[in-house]
Automatic annotation (TrEMBL):
<dbReference type="Pfam" id="PF25601">
    <property type="entry name" value="AAA_lid_14"/>
</dbReference>
<dbReference type="GO" id="GO:0005524">
    <property type="term" value="F:ATP binding"/>
</dbReference>
<keyword id="KW-0805">Transcription regulation</keyword>
<dbReference type="InterPro" id="IPR025944">
    <property type="entry name" value="Sigma_54_int_dom_CS"/>
</dbReference>
<dbReference type="GO" id="GO:0043565">
    <property type="term" value="F:sequence-specific DNA binding"/>
</dbReference>
<dbReference type="InterPro" id="IPR027417">
    <property type="entry name" value="P-loop_NTPase"/>
</dbReference>
<dbReference type="InterPro" id="IPR002078">
    <property type="entry name" value="Sigma_54_int"/>
</dbReference>
<keyword id="KW-0547">Nucleotide-binding</keyword>
<dbReference type="Pfam" id="PF00158">
    <property type="entry name" value="Sigma54_activat"/>
</dbReference>
<dbReference type="InterPro" id="IPR025943">
    <property type="entry name" value="Sigma_54_int_dom_ATP-bd_2"/>
</dbReference>
<dbReference type="InterPro" id="IPR009057">
    <property type="entry name" value="Homeodomain-like_sf"/>
</dbReference>
<keyword id="KW-0067">ATP-binding</keyword>
<dbReference type="InterPro" id="IPR002197">
    <property type="entry name" value="HTH_Fis"/>
</dbReference>
<keyword id="KW-0238">DNA-binding</keyword>
<keyword id="KW-0804">Transcription</keyword>
<dbReference type="InterPro" id="IPR058031">
    <property type="entry name" value="AAA_lid_NorR"/>
</dbReference>
<protein>
    <submittedName>
        <fullName>Fis family transcriptional regulator</fullName>
    </submittedName>
</protein>
Length: 455
């Protein structure tokens, strides 16, 4: 099998495929176009390592497509839909690794092809970050070394290389805007503006005016020309946060702009060609919103050329010591005072807490404790709700449909974990002191602590 060969199969008329063929001819890849009647006779080895199908509207209902896909065991890698509603053709796209819509830029296609070939030899995030790059991320306040966080940083690094749209996913407080800024400042547009926009603060009535600007006299209060956000970001990056909050009408305006990067300021007679990169962020599942009809499916595909997911803090609790140390050092620089550190005993509950506000919540509670602490050791108290939920042994989740000894083992395990967290907190994380408080040998207590993942 040729690991660099990309086979493109058009399920369309030659006329419909001709425009895409022009774009493919500009790409630096080994591309072989095979029509369906010939494709069915080829083996997987002859098809190469990456199969792409182009499906037009008139061919979307062809049930033979699904049979072809099933027979080829996991292929195709990419499906390019021309004028088709993807979520209405689930039987097709569920058999594909990736989906995009046509028309789009040659650069967008190039990135998808590059990603296909890379995935054949290496999983995303397998490479560790080199020391120089790690330091660059630290300077941008990306703190953490856990595998899931390192994978996100690798995705940010990769996204910075390509001048295409990126969708940033993640819960509130995980650092999506920080990631967007990193993509901008590590990329080729770093000398140009980075313009952040909170879509939740842009009502439908003023969205186009804010995005594209207006000419003098466009409406009663338009006393002079006004540049829109797109013009302000010219040459640089426009970052649209909370993209899921846009109304359907606003989504149409944004989609129209993304298709050819042209816009017309309100009241103007002519179109303006824009040179901007668009990054978008959301804490919602846009694919689900598209299926529900509240977010345009074609806009989702336009935005989701590359995707970076920022992990929740509860998914990387091993990074808590690094994060707290970094934040305390920053607080000392900003607010002065003697050197401070977080009491080690705090990590017992911090590793169990779910952190619904993620790093932003950690920063908030840690700053409050820093400012209120007189001595050098910061004792961070858990939230009241967490204390209420954990002050007694929680056996509600114990499976009682087991024999006596198994049930007893589960309850004892719950007791051990709760007791260890309590005694470690009282001992400020000092295992020797905790052992004395518990009346156990240090070595024995250490084994229990390790057993329950509290160190």
């Amino acid at each position: 099998m040729d690991t660099g060969l990309i086979t493109v199969v058009p399920f369309s008329t030659p006329e419909r495929f001709s425009e895409l063929k022009v774009a493919l001819d500009t790409l630096p890849y080994n591309i072989n176009v095979i029509w369906p009647e010939d494709w069915a006779r080829l083996t997987q080895a002859e098809l190469g390592s990456a199969l792409v199908v182009f499906i037009s509207e008139e061919q979307a209902s062809n049930l033979e497509l699904c049979q072809y896909f099933d027979e080829l065991g996991g292929l195709p890698k990419l499906c390019i839909l021309d004028g088709i509603s993807g979520f209405k053709q689930r039987r097709i796209i569920d058999r594909c690794h990736d989906v995009m819509t046509w028309p789009c830029s040659a650069e967008e296609i190039s990135y998808r092809f590059c990603r296909m070939l890379e995935n054949n030899t290496q999983s995303v995030g397998e490479k560790s970050l080199d020391a120089e790059l790690k330091q660059a991320f630290i300077q941008m306040n990306f703190i953490g070394e856990s595998p899931v966080f390192s994978q996100a940083l690798s995705r940010i690094q990769k996204a910075a290389k390509y001048d295409v749209s990126v969708l940033l996913m993640g819960e509130t407080g995980t650092g999506k805007e920080l990631a967007a800024r990193a993509i901008h400042y590590m990329g080729g547009r770093n000398a140009q503006p980075f313009i952040p926009v909170n879509c939740g603060a842009l009502p439908e009535e003023i969205f186009e005016n804010e995005l594209f600007g207006h000419s003098q006299g466009a409406y009663t209060d338009a006393k002079k020309n006004q540049l829109g956000l797109v013009a302000q970001a010219e040459g640089g990056t426009l970052f649209l946060d909370e993209i899921d909050s846009l109304s359907l009408k606003s989504q149409v305006a944004l989609l129209r702009f993304l298709q050819d990067h042209q816009y017309r300021p309100l009241g103007s007679q002519g179109y303006v060609k824009a040179n901007v990169r668009l990054l978008a962020a959301t804490n919602a599942d846009l694919a689900e919103l598209a299926q529900a009809g509240t977010f345009r499916e074609d806009l989702f595909y336009r935005l989701n050329i590359m995707q970076v997911t920022m992990p929740a803090l509860r998914e990387r609790t091993d990074d808590l010591p690094l994060l707290t140390d970094h934040l305390i050092k920053r607080f000392m620089l900003e607010h002065g005072g003697e050197d401070k550190h977080l009491s080690a005993g705090c990590y017992a509950w911090m590793r169990q807490y779910l952190w619904p506000g993620n790093v932003r919540e950690l920063e908030n509670v840690l700053l409050r404790a820093f400012l209120e602490t007189e001595g050098s050791a910061i004792l961070l108290s858990p939230p009241a709700q967490w204390i209420e939920e954990n002050e007694s042994i929680n056996i509600s989740g114990v499976n009682w449909d087991v024999d006596y000894n198994q049930a007893k083992s589960l309850v004892v395990g719950a007791f051990e974990k709760n007791y260890l967290m309590h005694v470690l907190s009282k001992a400020d994380g000092n295992v020797s002191r905790a052992a004395r408080l518990a009346g156990k040998e240090r070595r024995s207590l250490g084994k229990l602590i390790k057993k329950h993942g509290l160190r």
